[in-house]
Amino acid sequence: LPFLLRYTDYHLFGTSSIHNNPPPNESRCNICDYEHQDVETPDTFLPLSPCFHWVHYHCFVWWISRIDERRDKCPVCGVTLFHFDEINATTLAARSNIDRENGEVPMYYDHDAKQLVHDDNSQYEVDCASITDHVAWYFQCELRLQTDQSHPPYLDLLKVFDAVLGRLQETGRPRGKWLSYGTLMGERLWDTLVLIKMMRWLEENAKEVVGSQGWVELEGKHQQLQ
User: Fold this and answer.
1) Which of 12, 50, 115, 181 meets the CB 3.0–4.6 Å disulfide criterion with 187?
2) Which UniProt keywords apply (predicted)?
3) Where are the domains of the chain?
4) Strands, E assignment, the chain
């Protein structure tokens, strides 16, 4: 993989012959979600390499300037684009007049959540919605749990909990800085939130499970996390 400055100079601007001429299915920036010409300040619209997902150049510089583990990856497909270097990221931001400390954070398109987010409160809400979606999907699609069952079979809810955590991790959750964890305490806070939302979903959609042996085990896990 190239280092950031070489990637920018050779892999991005080396394709200048096709800049601002995206294919019809790539006419919107994959970071800000605006049509490539619908921006207040004219900006170069170019494809990322090697995946050819199109972005505004200033959006790209903002993307790689964030404190986020995904900043060296395509925001759409997640492919790693370059070797990240903090000094080079600062250099590119300075070249583009992007204030990394005090500049307004633009909205960007979250491709997993399929919506625009622009501040951590919004990202927190998206994280929470993602938990609920994954819980519902797992019970309804993987386990085919029917809400009208009068005598549901024993469900290993701790196993389901671990599976939901795994699926969320695969999608890069959590992304809000309030929930992103780098410590054991942070990880426990995220686990607790997922567990609470899972229990709430069961209380609302599968009341027959509440009070079962699996539920008791889940409550024990909740107490352990607290």
Assistant:
1) 181
2) Metal-binding, Zinc, Zinc-finger
3) 4-110, 119-225
4) 45-47, 54-56, 108-110, 115-117
